From TrEMBL, chain A:
InterPro entries: Glutathione-S-Trfase_C-like, Glutathione-S-Trfase_C_sf, Glutathione_S-Trfase, Glutathione_S-Trfase_N, GST_C, GST_superfamily, Thioredoxin-like_sf. Signal peptide: none annotated. One of its GO terms (biological process) is glutathione metabolic process. This is Glutathione S-transferase. Pfam families: GST_C_3 (PF14497). One of its GO terms (molecular function) is glutathione transferase activity. PANTHER family: GLUTATHIONE S-TRANSFERASE (PTHR11571). Residues 109-239 form the GST C-terminal domain. Residues 28-107 form the GST N-terminal domain.
From TrEMBL, chain B:
One of its GO terms (molecular function) is glutathione transferase activity. GO terms for biological process: glutathione metabolic process. Residues 27-106 form the GST N-terminal domain. Residues 108-246 form the GST C-terminal domain. Pfam families: GST_C_3. This is Glutathione S-transferase. It comes from Linnemannia schmuckeri.
Length: 249, 248
């Protein structure tokens, strides 16, 4: 069990040219500070696991740690680079892009990066709508809101995304022939929607039969060995439970 | 003034060909977005700031919707110097693309990360504003705005004034020059400064109250093509339309 511990790594103070050099490291180790649920830490943990990098979690003592974080929100990630520099990463979506960029998951040129960002943004809009309308709904309204969401919001998303994936050759990837942040973000979204189905709600309309191209993306991402290993851990199961508890699902 | 109704034909080519054509800063742009600020504002600000030639397309949404990549606007059509047409979609993806092209994204992976963290923190602020103030019933607006200013905005200001001082209080979030972070925060503050409930207290953002943030605003507004855009009739109309649309 994690002891309460406010001590956080101390970021290296240096100018951005020096830190920029250090940040090129692909041999870094990481410490993540986030609560015991998926929430805004999920995609960061997923990317850390996917990258195969060594990473661990820091014990949270939010009341005491808050003042020491750059924006007084979590997640924060502390990266120790190859040369021993400590970099402090804040804001979940900034962290996600930094890791994607570093580990070759951000497209091979400016146009591919833009395509990755288009997909990310489109998926994030659905994630936010789900969060507001279903997670944010009063419990006695959850089933009704979820059914509406599945019938109105998801089919539009699915149609658009199945078409994009078909245009890219239905190869299990949004951009080119290899995994990018786009694939991982969408896989994460589908996993989350499937996991947080309110009891008694309709089926979530994703499946190998109904959404073959999206399902292929999901399977390819989840088949990635280091990510698959992470999802089998006890900690991951704790985060599942923590998520359901927090949002009362 | 919007010049045409038809959407440009997008070039089909590999991403390598498109990316190569899109290098350089001599493209012209056409923007498809509704006549208000909304998710088009920062895109317009970036196009203006860049000094690029750009114009707006006339919106005929029922006809155009299914021709857009995600059935949402804004969409930007980039006409490269070599004659190709690229289709850019999703406001924040467009913003990042333009920032990268016009050197507004920092000069290494670390600076880019810093730009992103300020961008996303500001996005959190504008989402809270949209939910709590713009989303409030008009009769509850003054109270919600006051709460927003004292609970949410004050916290943002204090954190950001500190960050800006740590960067030397030079009117920039990252390094010594304007980045997407500066433009995003300025647009966010402009939105809050525009949508003040009638009869409400003034927004607690000013040269006196928030000197470092104000410096960022002044630095962005010191860009000639940006300033010209902001003074234009179209920009004034967009502000007016935005206020009207949300009943401010």
């Amino acid at each position: 069990m994690a002891a309460t511990n406010i001590s956080l790594p101390v970021p290296t103070k240096a100018d951005t040219t020096v830190l920029g050099q250090a940040a090129k490291s692909t041999d870094s180790t990481y410490k993540i500070l986030y609560f015991g649920l998926h929430g805004r830490g999920e995609l960061t943990r997923t990317l850390l696991a996917y990258s195969g990098a060594k990473w661990e979690e820091l014990p949270v003592d939010w009341a005491n740690q808050k003042e020491h974080t750059p924006f007084k929100v979590l997640p924060v990630v502390y990266e120790t680079t190859q040369d021993g520099t400590i970099l402090e990463l804040a804001e979940s979506q900034a962290i996600e892009r930094y890791l994607a960029n570093k580990y070759g998951l951000y497209g091979k040129n400016a146009y591919e990066t833009h395509k990755v960002e288009q997909i990310f943004s489109s998926a994030d809009a659905v994630a936010q709508a789900f969060s507001q309308k279903i997670i944010g709904a009063a419990q006695d309204k959850r089933v009704e809101e979820a059914n509406k969401f599945y019938a109105e919001v998801l089919p539009k998303f699915i149609a658009i995304h199945e078409a994009h994936l078909a245009k890219n050759g239905a190869n299990g990837h949004y951009v080119g022939n290899s995994a990018t942040l786009a694939d991982i973000k969408v896989a994460n979204l589908i996993d989350r929607l499937l996991f947080l189905r309110p009891k008694g709600a309709d089926e979530v309309p994703f499946s190998a039969e109904k959404t073959p191209n999206l399902w292929k993306v999901l399977e390819k991402v989840n088949a990635h060995p280091t990510l698959a290993a992470w999802k089998k851990t006890e900690r991951y199961q704790e985060l599942n439970a923590g998520t359901k508890n927090m949002f009362k699902f | 003034m919007p010049s045409t109704n038809a959407l440009p034909t997008v070039t089909r080519a590999s991403s390598e060909v498109l990316a190569e054509a899109a290098k350089g800063t001599d493209s012209t742009f056409q923007l498809l977005y509704f006549p208000l600020n909304g998710r088009g504002e920062l895109v317009r600000n970036l196009l203006a700031y860049s000094g690029a030639q750009w114009e707006e397309l006339a919106v005929d949404w029922p006809v155009q919707k299914l021709k857009t990549p995600f059935q949402v606007v804004p969409v930007v059509y980039e006409h490269t110097a070599s004659g190709l047409v690229l289709e850019l979609a999703e406001s924040n993806a467009i913003e990042r693309y333009l920032a990268r092209k016009y050197n507004l994204y920092g000069s290494n992976i670390w600076e880019e990360n810093l730009v992103n963290q300020y961008y996303h923190n500001a996005e959190g602020l504008i989402q809270a504003f949209a939910l709590r103030v713009v989303g409030a019933a008009p009769e509850a607006r003054i109270e919600e705005a006051n709460k927003f200013y004292t609970e949410v905005l004050a916290k943002f200001v204090s954190i950001h004034e500190e960050h800006l001082k740590q960067n030397g209080d030079n009117g920039h979030y990252v390094g010594n020059s304007t980045t997407l972070a500066d433009l995003k925060v300025v647009q966010t503050l402009d939105r809050i400064l525009l949508l003040v409930p009638k009869g409400g207290v003034p927004v607690p953002v000013s040269k006196e109250l928030t000197p470092s943030l104000w410096k960022v605003k002044e630095a962005v507004e010191g860009n000639a093509s940006y300033a010209t855009w902001k003074k234009s009739q179209r920009s004034q109309d967009l502000n007016a339309n935005t206020k009207a649309r949300f009943q401010f």
